[in-house]
Amino acid sequence: MDNLFDLYDLRITVDEIRGKSVCGMAVGDYFEITESSKIRIPVGKHFCMYALNSVIPLISAKQRNLSENDWLTKDSHAICPDPEEGLVMIIERIGKRTMNRDDLT
Known about the structure:
13% of the residues lie in helices and 37% in strands.
C-alpha cells in the first residue's frame, strides 16, 4: 500500500494594511507552515493571534493539490477580522514535500 502523499509548505505574509495596525504587524511580516503542521515565525517577530485565526481554515486546503477549477487555486488572500485594522494576508506555496501517512496521526 502506498502511504506517500504530497503537501505544500506555505508562507502567509502581511500583504497590505488598510487601516491602523494596533497589533504591531507590518507589511512583509510572515509565518510559515512546514512539514504538515509546524508553524515557524522568524526569531524576534510575532504574528497576531486573530490574523492567524482567520487563515487557519484555508491552510489544509492550500497545502494540497486542488482542481484547477477550485476557487482556492485562484484566491489566496485572507483578511484579519478586525475591521479597523484591515490587515490583508496572502497565502503562498513555498515548497512541496512528500510525506508518509504512517508518520502522521
